[in-house]
Amino acid sequence: MYHFLVSKKKTLNSEIQVFGRESVISRIWGILETKSIYMNDVRRIGKTQILRKMEAEPLDGWRVIHEDVEGVRSPEEFANLIYRKAYQGLSSGKTVLRRAGELLASLGGAEVGGVLTLPEGKAKTWKELLERTINDLDEACEDTNEALVFLIDELPYMLYNMDAAEAAEVLDILRKISQVAQRLRFVFTGSIGLHHVLAKLHQGDYLGSPFNHLEPITPGPLAHSDAVAFAKSRVLSEGIESPDLDVFSERIATRVGDIPFYIEKVVARLALAGETSPDQVEVVVDSALLDPNSGWDLEHYRKRLRNYYRNRESLALAVLDHLARDGSDVSSFEEIERVIRGQSGTGIEQEVIREVLKLLLRDFYLERVAGGYRFYLPLLRRWWQLDRDLQN
């Protein structure tokens, strides 16, 4: 019998980092019974912490392999990484990965501790290696009557950094594998949408929709009550003695849009400054938003418009500037169209404005609500106001 080596050690820090995510994690495990998942949301929202919680505390009958692939630059590196994680995650990795081992031997490659050296000049070796590795794992799961889930963090970054033709091949093989494997599932995550990867691929001959069989999940911020409880726990752990702890905690959660990463950052700044008044929370948040060394890194929202929107960057900026400046927080399409047309001085097609709004929705800059559009994260709206001098 094969035994997967998975750490089940629980720590206080891991519990804090995934505060309030029980329902999301329970939903993920339920979906994985029948299909794989694509989890897409903004950076810092807590996607990786959800994966770490699943890795540390897998559901009965499940085994977990977790890897961040943001730094992977080629299909060969990706296939090697999957093989290595499988080899290292199995107590009898070399024995279990029989088909993959036979391939390696036939090609004259080498393996040391799960790290492969594939021979030069062997076309598409990575594809066969990846398929054989997954087939070996699927068979091992059947033998043990278990299931295995690969948690693949930041897949779109990996694909976007590959050559377009290679990225298309990786997408197609992952689709094939995730549909054929009986006891294996995938959870892919991304902070940029796969639609940007596909847009890049569609500039060539690629016409596929490789992940339309995956269940999409957006974790979103914490529920407000959970965010307040988390803020309160962090305030207490920092030893802050506020005269009105409940109001203080509620103000912190509200000002950062119920996102645990920023709650931790704000509480740490409040503790450092010795601030205990709820009225000082907004001052501390604004100072962090203006501080280029705060580590909040909201500037990436501005930079990625240039990277992914290209010739529509100026239109996207105009939309976001309007919504940041507008005193009502929510703006209808008609109002957005009127403002954009008035600023441009030229006739911008209505359909072009609609397409940019759809992109901004898919990239979690905006969300649709009753009455129109608004920023997805209130914290991003506040940063946009301060950074671009758009305060009313």
Distance from first to last alpha carbon: 67 Å
- Helix tally? 19
Number of strands: 9
Helix content bin: 40-55%
| Major sheet characteristics | 5 strands, parallel
Question: Strand fraction band?
Answer: 5-15%
Return the structural class.
alpha/beta
For the CA atoms, what is the radius of gyration? 24 Å
Oligomer state equals: single chain
> Unreliable segments (pLDDT under 50, ≥5 consecutive)?
1-16
Task: Output the helix-strand order.
Answer: HHEHEHHHEEHEHHEHEHHHHHHHHEEH
**Shape assignment:** globular
Average pLDDT for all residues: 85
Q: Order the strands across the largest sheet as they lie in space.
A: 2-5-6-1-7
Kindly summarize this structure in a few lines:
This protein has helices at 12-17, 22-32, 47-56, 75-88, 93-96, 98-107, 125-144, 155-160, 164-180, 194-202, 224-237, 245-255, 260-273, 281-290, 299-309, 313-325, 333-344, 350-362, 378-387, and strands at residues 37-40, 62-68, 110-112, 115-117, 147-153, 184-190, 215-217, 366-369, 372-375.
